[in-house]
Design brief:
Layout: H1 16-66, E1 75-79, E2 85-89, E3 96-104, E4 110-112, E5 139-147, E6 153-155, E7 161-163, E8 169-177, H2 184-193, E9 196-201, E10 206-211, E11 221-225, H3 230-233, E12 249-251, E13 256-260, E14 263-267, E15 271-274, E16 277-281, E17 291-297, H4 299-324, H5 337-341, H6 345-357, H7 364-378, E18 381-383, E19 386-388, E20 395-396, E21 412-413, H8 428-435, H9 437-458, H10 473-525
Antiparallel strand pairs: 1-17, 2-16, 3-13, 3-17, 4-10, 4-12, 5-8, 5-11, 6-7, 9-10, 13-14, 15-16, 18-19, 20-21
Length: about 525
């Protein structure tokens, strides 16, 4: 609509503004309809985005994980002496009783420095050359295992300079020079940069240096460079005898050592991962002592994995059923600004909510996704040459007459004590987990794999949809942009149409003005007035 100045009705006395608005009203309806259609499309995009996010979460999270058989083979374990070891069992652990002996505990290499000169009290901010003036310019070297960050440079065994990808562990030798003004804190910072833990105890006037991790391979070495005696002057020389009676002591890094069922295992850490068992040792056993480990199938844990999967599936399929079977909203037109003025916020929300809730009603793409899921759940899975179905495990829908509206595709576990619909039925799932845990795991991992593959086919990129979208998001965005262009063109036509009418009325007013002027002249000439 033009914003130029308009003079209307001055000579004609007509309500030109109202007349023009009535003339353009029909074309304004076209603009409003386009805007309403675009708004409904925007609501439909949002509805699909919300639903697709839930479908993708099932696909990339639960189904992706549960495709693996081990997720349905939960095990639990007990240990006869929890003060000496803790045990966790994965799905691959073997059921039964095993014996454990703990020969050694993994330890970090530790260097406890000798007490420095008792006549001087050192603090972290003191110059390190204050320990002994001859320290200035001396060097020590620290060899320790360090973990490299991405982009770090290091020299490999062949003598080549390599750029780290990140996470590599190498034995690295770092030289540290004692410089003018270097403080004790500066020195310990340099030690930490070299790959060891380091601190200075002001109360005891000693340096404490330790490896960053346990085990022989993670131990460190600290030496003088160039024939100096920096280590001795710093109280770090384990071969020196100090005048104050204290000594520096280095405890070597040590590996953990156990015997499991008579076989020996060695680890740089206190955790061993052996045949599905994660064993963390806490203390040594006596020579004649054995710890008993008992591993069994954890039926409750696996049952809950299946139950949680079905709960997530049911919530999704019920929502899809509700959207697909929504009541028609044909009688609910988009509200105009004038209509909204006469309604409360709650009334507006209810009205628009009815329209939004019907946008995916009988949607063909939604129907395709639903069919893919429901048909897969109804399908069989081959286990040891036999085709099994959910019903073999007492898992089924309630039936058409018993199920609530839009819950006809939801599955229930017979005997589930938390569900009054099926709590009195025989618990076939728990029975299967007890009698054939491997076959049961094979079935449910196979079912989840089939569901994953079904969704994977629907989520491939096409000319109309992006990757991981089960609806035509590209086409919908194209349609939305097309509405934007059409609305712009329609508004321009409306403005031009309105301007033409204002121009015509302006011309009429100009003509009436001239006519009135001429009449006044004639009247004057005839002696009027």
């Amino acid at each position: 609509m033009s914003d130029r100045m308009r003079i209307t009705g001055m000579y004609s006395g007509m309500d030109t503004e109202s007349i023009v608005q009535q003339l353009v009203a029909a074309k304004q309806v076209k603009v409003d309809n386009l805007k309403n259609d675009q708004k409904k499309l925007e609501w439909k995009q949002t509805a699909w985005q919300d639903l697709n996010a839930k479908i993708y979460n099932l696909y990339s999270g639960t189904l992706s994980k549960l495709r693996m058989t081990g997720n349905f083979k939960s095990k639990k374990t007990t240990v006869s002496d929890a003060t000496k070891a803790t045990i966790k069992a994965t799905g691959s652990a073997v059921n039964g009783t095993q014996s454990l002996k703990i020969k050694e505990i993994a330890k970090s290499g530790i260097l406890t420095g000798a007490k420095l000169d008792t006549s001087i009290k050192y603090k972290g901010t003191n110059s390190i050359t204050g320990i002994d003036s001859s320290l200035k310019g001396q060097k020590i070297s620290v060899t320790a295992k360090v973990k490299l960050a991405k982009g770090d440079k290091y020299i490999n065994e062949a003598g080549n300079t390599i750029t780290a990808e990140g996470g590599e562990e190498i034995n690295q030798t770092t030289e540290i020079e004692i410089t003018e003004g270097m403080t004790i804190n500066d020195f310990t910072d340099k030690l930490r940069e070299a790959g060891v833990n380091a601190s200075f105890d002001e109360n005891n006037q000693r340096f404490f240096i330790s490896a960053s991790d346990t085990g022989v391979e993670n131990d460190f070495k600290i030496e003088n460079v160039g024939g100096g005696d920096a280590l001795k002057l710093l109280g770090l020389d384990t071969t020196a005898t100090y005048s104050n009676g204290s000594t520096a002591i280095k405890t070597a890094g040590q590996d953990a050592k156990i015997e499991l069922n008579g076989s020996e295992f060695v680890s740089g850490s206190n955790t061993f991962n052996i045949n599905g068992l994660s064993i963390t040792v806490l203390g040594k056993t006596a020579d004649d002592e054995e710890i008993t480990i008992n591993t069994t199938t954890d039926v409750d844990a696996t049952y809950n994995v299946i139950k949680d999967f079905l709960t997530e599936y049911n919530e999704l399929i019920n929502e899809m059923d509700k959207l697909y079977n929504a009541d028609s909203a044909r009688k609910y037109n988009m509200l105009s600004a004038d209509e909204k003025e006469g309604m409360t916020d709650e009334e507006i929300e209810t009205w628009e909510g009815t329209i939004k809730g019907s946008l995916l009603r009988k949607d063909t793409q939604l129907g395709s996704v639903m069919n893919a899921l429901t048909n897969t759940m109804l399908g069989g899975v081959q286990v040891n040459g036999k085709t099994l179905y959910l019903s073999n495990f007492g898992i089924k829908t309630l039936g058409y007459f018993k199920a609530k509206d839009n819950e006809h595709h939801a599955y229930y576990i017979d005997g589930d004590p938390d569900d009054e619909n099926v709590s009195n039925e025989e618990d076939l799932l728990r029975k299967a987990l007890l009698e054939d845990p491997d076959g049961t795991a094979e079935f449910f991992s196979g079912l989840c794999k089939n569901l994953y593959n079904s969704l994977d086919k629907l989520m491939g990129t096409t000319d109309y949809s992006s990757i991981y979208k089960v609806y035509n998001d590209k086409q919908m965005q194209k349609d939305y942009d097309n509405y934007t262009q059409r609305i712009k063109e329609a508004e321009q036509k409306l403005s031009d149409y309105e301007d033409r009418w204002y121009d015509k009325f302006a011309q009429m007013e100009t003509a009436l003005s001239k006519l009135q002027s001429n009449q006044s002249i004639v009247s004057s000439m005839l002696g009027g007035g």
